[in-house]
């Protein structure tokens, strides 16, 4: 019997790489998607050796028009039936909205919102026809609140969270066997915490961050168990709960002050 297949976007490092490793350990053949072919090829070789699974590398820039559709057609034409889709690819920009490059922010919206929505639509339809499948959309704890100096990023993740929760209810009501989950990590020890390409650096104490492996493990486990909204870590669960206590106005002021104080 053939292995199930998992597709992971943004698979070249961070949480995406951990998703691929965990799914490979669970016996899934892998489709690894990112922009850096050499890095993906190296990862594919390592995961095949470690887990004995097949790895397919697809180079794609999901900020480009029709990139999601091209990715889907690529898997279809190669008879790669995706059983588990992980929409992990994402971009982040910190700083004052008026000072950040608008083209970079538009690319962020294209990846975080448009590509994720298109891939979800394409693969949800394919899975629905087979009455089985899992989709894990990586949102963020940032999606639970407005965040000044990270406003477009937080807004894109708010979209992912709301979209995924609503879609999960739709698919559950349709009883078509497709599970959709939103993963909402907080501060995670990845290159996103210190990347000059994304504007200012946010200075966060290491003890406030979870490891990428911890986040990915809970995301996969809870999605497979059918959970709609996944907030890893007790501190993050507490923060998510707090967002329901304060008014949006008060919360925005508090978060804005924190970010400006800790943004280098």
Automatic annotation (TrEMBL):
Keywords: Fatty acid biosynthesis, Fatty acid metabolism, Lipid biosynthesis, Lipid metabolism, NADP, Oxidoreductase. GO terms for biological process: fatty acid elongation. PROSITE patterns: ADH_SHORT (PS00061). One of its GO terms (molecular function) is oxidoreductase activity. Belongs to the short-chain dehydrogenases/reductases (SDR) family. It comes from SAR92 clade bacterium. It comes from the Bacteria. CDD domains: SDR_c. The lineage of its organism: Bacteria, Pseudomonadati, Pseudomonadota, Gammaproteobacteria, Cellvibrionales. The keyword Lipid metabolism applies. This is SDR family oxidoreductase. InterPro entries: NAD(P)-bd_dom_sf, Sc_DH/Rdtase_CS, SDR_fam. PANTHER family: HYDROXYSTEROID DEHYDROGENASE-LIKE PROTEIN 1, VERY-LONG-CHAIN 3-OXOOACYL-COA REDUCTASE. Pfam families: adh_short. Pathway: Lipid metabolism; fatty acid biosynthesis. Gene3D superfamilies: NAD(P)-binding Rossmann-like Domain.
